[in-house]
Design brief:
Elements: E1 3-10, H1 16-27, E2 35-41, H2 46-57, E3 64-68, H3 74-84, E4 89-93, E5 98-99, H4 104-111, E6 117-121, E7 124-125, H5 129-136, H6 150-164, H7 173-186, E8 198-199, E9 203-207, H8 208-214, H9 222-230, H10 235-241, E10 245-249, E11 255-256, E12 277-278, H11 280-287, H12 290-301
């Protein structure tokens, strides 16, 4: 069965993320036979994309490639790849993904061979955007007994945002609450309450049959992508409602069903020591100050969170 590893390369992100992926990809043996495909998103001409292909070839790789428009979000690009390039299985990695353990792809692929497993990923979370907004507004929420105060949580996420963008402004508590109220009204019933198990789409694997069956609706904004990833119609929810399993896979090869994801030590838990594939969000946690790391751990896992 052909396994296609699809790595998303966005022109908008510049060359650095691809260089980091290629460095980690060549440093860590994938552990299973596969073909590499670069999904080149948003490049105006083949000449614009040529440096990306040259970067891969400079490391002794000869990947396939496909040109995609820069509309929709990552899942839109993945759906287009499935339609255009036949394979038995697809492993999708986003622009910021970095394999960090030998055998990483082999572990993900082997998970699909286990009884009942239809979807496997390197990371998952129980976080709920809906309940975090409810918590900030003083409404009943799954986070009621988790965080150490609403203002402290707000400032913690502001600190995290400033790690990426030091110019990020603090518009104050009232403005934050107003935005939370607007988002809650606009996204009513669009997200599950905490805990809301969902595999993250930074690195996941599925069969062609499943990807075609699940489909990807039109995605215009990041909010639409969040709904598809962690809402009532998420890939994870639909797989589990069909009686099949959506699992997180650790670098030790262990599989974790959704009720045990908090034990996997892969995403925003402990020192993430069992992580197979890193990305910008796992890096945020690894580089955060202790208070922010604790906040992220609580957001993902509630009272079971144990930050490293």
């Amino acid at each position: 069965m052909k396994l296609l590893l699809v790595h998303l390369v966005r022109r908008h992100n510049g060359p650095a993320p691809l260089q980091r992926f290629l460095e980690s990809y060549t440093a860590h043996a994938p552990g299973v036979e596969h073909e590499l495909l670069l999904a080149l998103k948003g490049f105006d001409t083949p000449a614009d994309a040529a440096p990306s292909l040259a970067a891969a070839r400079s490391r002794g790789l000869d990947p396939g490639h496909i040109h995609l428009p820069d509309d929709g979000m990552d899942l839109t690009a993945y759906a287009r790849v499935v339609s255009a390039v036949p394979a038995g299985r697809y492993c999708f990695t986003n622009s910021y993904s970095q394999p960090i353990a030998d055998g990483w792809l082999g572990h993900l692929s082997a998970a699909l061979d286990q009884p009942g497993v239809a979807l496997a990923g390197a990371t998952g979370s129980w976080a709920s955007h809906q309940d975090f907004r409810r918590y900030q507004l003083g409404l009943r929420s799954g986070y009621d007994d988790v965080f150490e105060g609403r203002e402290r949580a707000r400032l913690g996420f502001l600190t995290l945002a400033r790690q990426r963008n030091p110019a990020k402004r603090d518009n104050g508590r009232l403005a934050f609450k107003a935005i939370a109220a607007l988002d809650l009204a606009r996204d009513r019933n669009a997200f599950d309450h905490f805990p809301a198990p969902h595999l993250r789409t930074n690195a996941f694997i599925a069969s062609r049959e499943l990807m075609v069956a699940l489909g990807v609706p039109r995605i215009r904004r990041k909010r639409d992508a969040y709904r598809l990833e962690s809402g009532p119609a998420s890939f994870t929810r639909r797989v589990e409602e069909s009686g099949r399993r959506a699992v997180v896979v650790g670098r030790d090869g262990s599989l974790y069903d959704s009720r045990r994801w908090d034990e996997s030590q892969t995403f925003w838990q402990g020192l993430q020591e069992n992580l197979l594939v890193a990305d910008n969000q796992t890096d945020d946690y690894a580089n955060a100050e202790p208070d922010v790391r604790r906040l992220l751990c609580q957001f993902a896992w509630g009272s079971t969170g144990q930050p490293g």
